[in-house]
Design a protein that fits this description.
Layout lengths: L22 E2 L3 H11 L1 E4 L1 H6 L6 E8 L8 E10 L8 E9 L5 E7 L15 H4 L6 E2 L5 E6 L4 E5 L5 E2 L7 E8 L3 E9 L5 E4 L5 E5 L2
Antiparallel strand pairs: 1-8, 2-3, 2-14, 3-4, 4-5, 5-6, 6-7, 6-8, 8-9, 9-11, 10-11, 11-12, 12-13, 12-14
């Protein structure tokens, strides 16, 4: 099996081994900053050159539906593809990122019917006028909960323990962890069986996606 099948984005997109210890409630200002950090084109090319266990993966995170967004909600179209096959992404999702009144940030993951029609499209493409938020299918239990780290001006978080179901390659559930900075995102997704043994996903650490200038 090709190694890149072990990679999962939901932007989902992620983990670093660095722990966030100076977390605080996020404000609307930090939430806007998060949107800027998450938006853009990313690549794991540098990591793949330094470590053959990682592939060169291209990640696109495109803000969409600005008219449906608010100061506490935004949407991203997310696609991932191997660098040699960017015209055939292996994962396509829509994220709805929300800031609660309590200052918690939740990234909800949605699938899209007929995702191939969205491939390499930008926010102004007519396809995003045809596609509406109420046509999406939520992946229940796969939400990523983020907190803000004031010291590093970054965001970090994960899914809830054993909450995201999966039947891929013998898995019972999936875990996703992510750290988001202004110039990169670090993502680690893993599949686990009913006995909590890992059955897919990276074992050494997360994918490091550098934002392209």
């Amino acid at each position: 099996m090709h190694k890149y099948f072990f990679i999962s984005f939901c932007f989902v997109i992620f983990l670093s081994c660095r722990l966030h210890r100076n977390t605080e409630k996020a404000s609307v200002k930090e939430f806007r900053y998060l949107k800027a950090c998450m938006s853009g084109d990313f690549s794991s090319e540098e990591q793949s050159k330094n470590d053959s266990d990682f592939f060169d993966i291209r990640l696109r995170m495109v803000p969409i539906w600005e008219s449906a967004s608010t100061s506490r909600t935004f949407y991203l179209y997310v696609e991932q593809a191997v660098a040699t096959s960017v015209e055939k992404p292996y994962r396509q999702r829509v994220y709805r990122v929300e800031l609660t009144e309590q200052g918690e940030i939740i990234s909800r993951i949605f699938t899209v019917q007929g995702p191939e029609r969205l491939t390499n499209k930008n926010a102004q493409d007519p396809i995003f006028k045809q596609l509406t938020p109420d046509s999406l299918q939520i992946k229940d239990g796969c939400e990523v909960y983020l907190t803000y780290d004031k010291a590093t001006q970054s965001f970090g978080g994960s899914t809830k323990d054993r909450a995201c179901p999966s039947d891929r390659n013998g898995a019972s559930y999936t875990t996703s962890r992510v750290n988001i900075y202004n110039d990169q995102m670090i993502s680690w997704d893993q599949g686990w069986d009913k006995n909590d043994q890992q059955v897919w996903g990276a074992t050494k650490g997360g994918y490091i996606f550098k934002k392209k200038k």
